């Protein structure tokens, strides 16, 4: 009985064991001082505790309360705020739009970034000029992008509206739900393409010349070569970018949306993060806004878990 | 293999035009008068009123209190960008040094405490963060503007990766020569990290300068407004006006995008290195 292999630990116990085990030292040799590392950690820890953990805990607690609108105390209501949020048709509609928006922005920004990177990787002359031009767009802030988008889609002066008019599309950004959504997606994609381009290009240039040459000898068809060799080798980069782009579409597009709808969504599409802001700051519904915050936190948590557990396994790391 | 491929260039040129044209249009249009823009739409040719528009935007005392000028907003953006970048580098270098180069109890726990912050972006906890700030009486201060943004581990992550790639032999040699932790940090690690520090400075400066939501909530007094906040302001004034100040809005946009774009383009090499190499 004694020499049977140990049964595999249940998942939780395994996690616990990993957490409690002595850390794999980052260095072969390390300093051995009891106090000094804490002194170095102190500033970072202080900022994190005050401005990260405290508000996060507060978000979770206040999501279980309903605050008196006049500021006289608050009442414990259990899961009611969550029920109200998830039960409302408006919330579900916004969640649906957020999902659609995220998929569109992520897919288009990744696709265009990859296309431009592949082309820039192929050409020799002018590569750095293309790169410089694209990088400059990366540095533009989302609200500035939103402002320029507003102008380009403006009813009176916007060239995109005129262009759409030629094709019989009576575009009314700010009035028509899907026209506004279209403009938001275009601006958000525009802002994110350079980031993906930089990473894809650096990933492509990391592929060894020997591998490329071998591929050229083995396979004449450029498209098949791309699908069979380049794409798998780019998978780690693409995977990393996928998560970054989803996070971007969910959260960093806040400014684009705010500039375009200006606190008055009316008939315009908004995303979940924007609703957290509207309910909390414009509607003074602290409990409801906090419950929505917690829901979003869970979404991010799930995304991160998916990142580590499922997707990473199917990706080839060269 | 290296034939000139017209099709590749065509795709690249079209892509680049799509990406850069809005910026060019913004700049060119900002040099026309508002009435001109209202009649003729956006334009790709320079107009003759650039100097006066930019002068107005930079020096006119605007807003409801008449306290804020474009130059003031620019200075606030600069304070936010530089303060954030410097703060980030100091905090995260120290923390990463402790995590990589010291053996101490709870090191793993501290690692998780710090890196959990990567999970939740500021946007999902704005409401409680705002309440904490008002309890601490930090609304409308530069401290309140900058310090809460530092509560994330991106910089620590970058520096930790970098320190781990520094050869162990350096520390061994330094210890044989009798250097203590502080001397090793100042005389060996900081000089070695110069390129990394420059790269992180650029990334973080752009990030700080471009902040929108946080400054918008933290600053109700107009003398603390950043350029990003000014953009929201100029758009709110528009509603109800006969001919909106298109030219001034564009000029403000150009002022808001110029510094980060210049920094990134000039220090391109460091920027790309810092961005792509630290994420592996």
Could you give the topology of this structure?
The complex is a heterodimer of chains A (318) and B (280).
Chain A: H1 11-20, H2 36-62, E1 65-67, E2 74-76, H3 80-87, H4 89-122, H5 127-138, H6 142-152, H7 159-166, H8 177-205, H9 209-218, H10 222-252, H11 254-261, H12 272-282, H13 286-309
Antiparallel strand pairs in A: 1-2
Chain B: H1 6-29, H2 34-40, H3 50-59, H4 70-101, H5 107-115, H6 126-135, H7 142-146, H8 154-165, H9 168-176, H10 181-192, H11 194-209, H12 213-218, H13 227-238, H14 246-266, H15 268-277
Helix pairs in contact in B: 1-14, 3-14, 4-8, 4-11, 4-13, 11-14, 11-15, 13-14
Folded structure, characterized:
The complex is a heterodimer of chains A (318) and B (280). Chain A has 318 residues and is mainly α. Chain A has a domain at 94-314: MetI-like (MetI-like fold, Orthogonal Bundle), CATH 1.10.3720.10. Chain A has 13 helices and 2 strands; from the N terminus they run H-H-E-E-H-H-H-H-H-H-H-H-H-H-H. In chain A, strands 1-2 form a two-stranded antiparallel ribbon. Chain A starts with 10 loop residues before the first helix and ends in a 9-residue tail after the last helix. Chain B has 280 residues and is mostly helical. Chain B has one domain: MetI-like fold. Helices cover 70% and strands 0% of the residues of chain B. Chain B contains 15 helices and no strands. Chain B has helices at residues 6-29, 34-40, 50-59, 70-101, 107-115, 126-135, 142-146, 154-165, 168-176, 181-192, 194-209, 213-218, 227-238, 246-266, 268-277. In chain B, helix 4 packs across helix 13 (227-238). The relative contact order of chain B is 0.14. The chains are: A mainly alpha (318), B mainly alpha (280). Chains A and B meet through helix 2, helix 4, helix 5, helix 6 and helix 8 of A and helix 1, helix 4, helix 5, helix 6 and helix 8 of B.
């Amino acid at each position: 009985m004694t020499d049977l292999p140990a049964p595999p630990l249940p998942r939780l116990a395994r996690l616990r064991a990993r957490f409690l085990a002595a850390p794999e030292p980052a260095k072969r040799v390390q300093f051995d001082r009891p106090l000094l590392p804490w002194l170095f950690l102190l500033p970072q820890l202080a900022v994190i505790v005050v401005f990260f953990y405290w508000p996060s805990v507060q978000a979770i607690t206040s999501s279980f309360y309903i605050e008196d609108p006049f500021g006289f105390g608050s009442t414990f209501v259990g899961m009611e705020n969550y029920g109200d949020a998830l039960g409302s048709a408006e919330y579900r509609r916004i969640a649906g739009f957020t999902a659609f928006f995220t998929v569109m922005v992520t897919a288009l920004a990744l696709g265009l970034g990859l296309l431009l990177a592949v082309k820039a990787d192929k050409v020799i002359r002018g590569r750095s000029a293309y790169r410089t031009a694209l990088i400059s767009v990366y540095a533009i802030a989302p609200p500035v992008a939103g402002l320029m988008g507003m102008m380009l889609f403006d009813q009176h002066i916007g060239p995109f509206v005129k262009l759409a008019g030629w094709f019989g599309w009576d575009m009314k950004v700010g009035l028509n739900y899907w026209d506004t959504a279209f403009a938001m997606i275009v601006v958000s994609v525009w802002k994110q393409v350079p980031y993906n381009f930089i990473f894809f290009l650096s990933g492509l240039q990391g592929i060894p010349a020997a591998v490329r040459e071998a591929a050229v000898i083995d396979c004449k068809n450029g498209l098949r070569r791309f699908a069979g060799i380049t794409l798998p080798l780019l998978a780690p980069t693409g995977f990393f970018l996928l998560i970054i782009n989803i996070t971007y579409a969910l959260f960093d597009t806040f400014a684009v949306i705010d500039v375009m709808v200006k606190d008055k969504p009316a008939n315009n599409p908004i995303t979940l993060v924007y609703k957290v802001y509207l309910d909390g700051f414009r509607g003074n519904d602290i409990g409801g806004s906090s419950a929505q915050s917690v829901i979003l936190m869970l979404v991010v948590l799930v995304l991160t878990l998916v990142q580590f557990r499922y997707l990473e396994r199917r990706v080839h790391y060269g | 293999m290296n034939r000139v491929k017209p099709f590749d260039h065509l795709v690249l040129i079209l892509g680049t035009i799509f990406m850069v044209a809005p910026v060019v249009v913004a700049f060119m249009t900002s040099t026309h008068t508002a009435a001109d823009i209202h009649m003729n739409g956006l334009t790709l040719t320079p107009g003759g009123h650039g100097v006066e528009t930019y002068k107005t935007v930079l020096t006119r005392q605007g807003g409801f209190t008449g306290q804020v000028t474009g130059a003031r907003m620019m200075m606030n953006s600069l304070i936010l960008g530089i303060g954030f970048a410097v703060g980030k580098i100091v905090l995260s270098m120290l923390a990463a040094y402790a995590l990589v180069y010291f053996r101490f109890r709870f090191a793993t726990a501290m690692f998780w405490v710090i890196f959990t912050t990567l999970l939740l972006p500021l946007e999902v906890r704005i409401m409680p963060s705002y309440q904490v700030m008002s309890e601490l009486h930090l609304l409308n201060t530069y401290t309140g503007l900058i310090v809460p943004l530092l509560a994330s581990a991106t910089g620590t992550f970058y520096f930790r990766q970098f320190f781990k790639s520094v050869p162990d032999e350096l520390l061994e040699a330094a210890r044989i020569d009798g250097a203590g932790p502080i001397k090793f940090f100042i005389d060996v690690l900081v000089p070695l990290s110069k390129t990394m520090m420059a790269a992180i400075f650029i990334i973080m400066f752009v990030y700080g300068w471009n902040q929108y939501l946080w400054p918008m909530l933290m600053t109700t007094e107009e003398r603390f407004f950043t350029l990003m906040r000014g953009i929201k302001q100029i758009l709110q004034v528009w509603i109800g006006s006969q001919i909106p100040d298109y030219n001034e809005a564009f000029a403000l946009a150009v002022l808001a995008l110029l510094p980060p774009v210049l920094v990134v383009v000039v220090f391109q090499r460091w920027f790309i290195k810092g961005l792509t190499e630290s994420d592996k």
